[in-house]
Specification:
11 strands, about 20% helix, Pyruvoyl-Dependent Histidine Decarboxylase, Chain B, flat, 5-stranded mixed beta sheet, about 180 residues, 6-stranded antiparallel beta sheet
């Protein structure tokens, strides 16, 4: 099976039971009715990125659904947690892309997303045979919102969910996911 489409989603859930907080985060993300199978990080060449709204309409209850997921949970009041999925896609659609997952404690949302994108770009560079550590201050083009690495131009993006732990100490779970579809 090689996925033809992918969509990105995120969610947060809070509950006195950790498992129920995770289930509520899945529901908030719109993927609670699927049997999720975690996969690693390659975005197939030509895989079409679609909206969350379109992707969710293609899901069926009980469907085996492949995804790259980042997940984090806390029961500490006011503790900031984050989960992010970053993506790096070469301009040449004949090459595969890369998806990274990153979770954090105490880091602001923008930095969580930036880290996920940098990780995806660095890992993509390595799968393309480039021995580089991607550094946003050097390879990033603010004007074009892309990395330029040894002749490859790479677009990046991320989806990030952060939340503070519930003030009463109930479990708070955050997720971010890239959900693959066969059609």
């Amino acid at each position: 099976m090689t996925p033809k489409k992918v969509f990105f989603t995120k969610g947060v859930g809070k509950h006195k039971d950790e498992l129920q907080a995770f289930e509520l985060a899945l529901k908030n993300a719109g993927i609670e009715k699927c049997n999720l199978v975690y996969v690693s990080s390659i975005l197939p060449p030509g895989c079409q990125i679609i909206s969350k709204e379109e992707g969710i309409t293609k899901l069926q209850a009980g469907q085996i659904t492949y995804c790259v997921m980042s997940r984090n949970c806390t029961d500490e009041p006011n503790r900031l947690i984050g989960a992010s999925v970053g993506m790096a896609v070469p301009k040449d659609e004949g090459h595969h892309g890369y998806i990274s997952e990153y979770h954090s404690f105490g880091i602001p949302k923008e930095r969580v997303g930036d880290t996920a994108e940098r990780l995806a770009a660095t890992m993509l560079a390595r799968t393309l045979g480039l021995d580089v550590e991607v550094d946003k201050s050097k390879e990033w083009s603010d004007l074009k919102k892309e990395y330029i690495m040894s002749g490859y131009i790479v677009k990046t993006n991320s989806i990030t969910q952060t939340s503070e732990g519930d003030k009463d100490g109930t479990y708070t779970t955050v997720i971010a996911a890239a959900v693959f579809l066969e059609e």
